[in-house]
User: Which sequence fits this backbone?
């Protein structure tokens, strides 16, 4: 007797609705206008710190694996851009004094409001990855991130400024755990959840707790 194997497709991520895009445009526009004085102060502080560039452009992978340039206020010394790419560590010597404050409050990511306004990013979603990014495993073996479960799924939506992983997960959890939380968000994505994550993100910013290795909420 011939048997038939039935494959059950994984749930597809919730599409970006008109309401969520409208929220992105409204909040990013308001944020750009309201934070204008902060931009001037931050730019001055970054420049006076060491005379280096004010902004830092990061090549990132967006929706549909489209490449875009994510903008940030520079938080590391200028020479760090010539070093091999690696995630910032606790008490990382590459981070400047001004940069430590910017990173703790997420003020270094203010320029990404522009990325949200033009549609490269959303307020909430998986954080954008670098092209060709890899993760170090035991023995120093590098594993390309595209081999991790959930890599393709998380690129079906716009990457976000904040998200379930950033708000609830400890900073140093594994990539596998981060991707698992990203997939959980994609399956439960809703305007209500986005508003909750945005509100919690503002609370974390007010506490200056984004760089904490402990739970942030």
Assistant:
């Amino acid at each position: 007797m011939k048997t038939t194997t039935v494959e059950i497709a994984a749930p597809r991520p919730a599409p970006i609705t008109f309401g969520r895009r409208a929220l992105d445009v409204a909040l990013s526009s308001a944020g750009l206008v309201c934070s204008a004085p902060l931009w001037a102060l931050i730019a001055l502080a970054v420049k006076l710190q060491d005379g280096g560039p004010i902004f830092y452009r990061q090549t990132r992978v967006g929706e549909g694996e489209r490449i875009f340039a994510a903008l940030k206020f520079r938080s590391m010394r200028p020479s760090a851009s010539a070093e091999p790419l690696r995630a910032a560590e606790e008490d990382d010597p590459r981070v400047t004094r001004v940069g430590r404050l910017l990173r703790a409050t997420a003020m270094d990511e203010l320029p990404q409001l522009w990325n949200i306004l033009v549609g490269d990013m959303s307020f909430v979603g998986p954080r954008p990855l670098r092209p060709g990014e890899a993760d170090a495993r035991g023995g120093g073996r590098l594993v390309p991130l595209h081999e991790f479960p959930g890599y393709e799924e998380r690129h079906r939506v716009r990457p976000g400024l904040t998200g379930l992983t950033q708000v609830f997960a400890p900073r140093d959890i594994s990539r596998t755990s981060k991707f698992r939380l990203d997939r959980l968000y994609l399956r439960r994505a809703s305007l209500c959840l986005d508003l909750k994550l945005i509100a919690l993100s503002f609370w974390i910013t007010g506490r200056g707790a984004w760089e904490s290795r402990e739970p942030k909420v």
Q: What stands out?
A: DSSP finds eight helices and six strands in the chain.
